[in-house]
Design brief:
It is built from 14 helices and six strands. With 313 residues, the chain is an alpha+beta fold. The two termini are 37 Å apart.
Amino acid sequence: MNGLKLSKDYYEAYGKEMLEGSFSDYLPFISVGLAGSGSEVLGFDDEISHDHDFEPGFCIFIPSEDVMDRKTVFALERAYAKLPNEFMGFERQKLSPVGGARKGVIRLDEFLVSKLGNPEGKLSTYEWLKIPTQYLLEVTSGELFFDGDKRFTKIREELSVMPKDIKLKRLAGHLLLMSQAGQYNYARTAKRKDYASTGVCVYEYVKNAIAAIYLLNNKYMPYYKWQLRGLKELDVLSELALPIEFLLTAPNEESYVNEKTDRIELIAGRVIEELISQGITKAICGDLEKHAYSVNDYVNDGDLRNLNILSGV
């Protein structure tokens, strides 16, 4: 059973009637759905996901206290808690899940502050550069089953795509780190037969390659354990999942150096082809460092362009 469908079906079966029956005056200010952390929000959940933080339930995003006072919120929390404990073979959890409550009654402003640091979802240039993309994804993913005043919908829409200049600045930094870790330091550590360090180089190369691929798809990168799963479903460069998996899983020892070098260059070459295809580099070479600085030159905002190239990573 997919967690998002379980959540929506549970809301349709019990939550909708509860809200419309006892809290109809507040419906214009309430959003209901599934958003935030958890594999089910992204549609990545499976049978293994059922061992923790998996239950029938949904999020009720409520307005600030001047619209919905504490007494009403307490009544809503009690009404939610009294909904059936079992649904479609799954039981609601009696203990708080790992990482805190992910479902139930949640102040929308507090939710946005916890993810973005801002109750309105308005981000400064610095925040766009520094907020981990997994939090942007958690705010914009999942589904709203009901949105009374459309406020949350509007915020989600405004945050759904990273501004182009921010994308380019972040991309430039990841390309530079790919170059340093994969095209430069991997070979040097291999020559020294320092295979522990070659492993670190591979990790840094792969981490930044994955980030670059998500940016080239105009998609937010999820929490680390879902990054490869999500990469395989992207429209652009999803075929690089296989060479990336090889780099991560093949041993870091002398007999694999040539094969890993080939994969590093294969990934770099495909990324460069995509940079050229999207018209965001003028460099004509296979050196990711030169492409990194060329991408940075495409940042339109002069102040942002002149920041250190690694400002977005």
